[in-house]
Amino acid sequence: xxxxxxxxxxxxxxxxxxxxxxxxxxxxxxxxxxxxxxxxxxxxxxxxxxxxxxxxxxxxxxxxxxxxxxxxxxxxxxxxxxxxxxxxxxxxxxxxxxxxxxxxxxxxxxxxxxxxxxxxxxxxxxxxxxxxxxxxxxxxxxxxxxxxxxxxxxxxxxxxxxxxxxxxxxxxxxxxxxxxxxxxxxxxxxxxxxxxxxxxxxxxxxxxxxxxxxxxxxxxxxxxxxxxxxxxxxxxxxxxxxxx
Length: 244
Fold this sequence. Notes:
Blueprint: E1 10-15, H1 19-30, E2 36-41, H2 44-50, E3 58-62, H3 70-80, E4 86-90, H4 96-101, E5 106-109, H5 114-132, E6 135-140, E7 143-148, E8 152-158, E9 161-166, E10 170-173, H6 177-183, E11 189-193, E12 196-199, E13 203-206, E14 210-212, E15 217-218, H7 225-242
Parallel strand pairs: 1-2, 1-3, 3-4, 4-5
Antiparallel strand pairs: 6-7, 8-9, 8-12, 9-10, 11-12, 13-14, 14-15
Helix pairs in contact: 2-3
């Protein structure tokens, strides 16, 4: 049993006219635990020849390329697909204003660091999962059940089993919270405590613990409270950027 997203690789296009830079970025992408497929293009023209709406979940574009720049390539992409996340790779921030105009997610300044790449992959995964209505398949009382990820509020570990809470119902499963966490996409689902996984889309407020949309309480580990709170704030910021 698992999520639909577990078997669906993130479809990435990497457009970079310097082979060594393309290889370096590919190496950073491979450090992620996100399943992916990668198509590499040496020019904007080559990318546009195959690009179609919905063909990719994330596009990395080098700003400085040959006859067709990354900015010009992005303009043509936006004529076809207004939603696909675009990440510019560059040695300069001179075109930041153009990036905002084209609803680019962010600029990655070369040499690119791993954290920025993983952040971009997380955003693209989040946008894709929400658009596709990903689900979690479990067995409860010997009956297979498919739960939309968007319905899950939080999960609680109970005596080596788990209880999955939605707004209207709770599902018991023999799957451990560790196994469930491996199946759920981050950063949307956060392990806030050894006994709790939280869907950050359904957090109503944060105090000492998470207060959920249904009034339920999901504990935050005391020793990790600051780290967990920062992760939640980063998630809110990332999703706000992704929805622009």
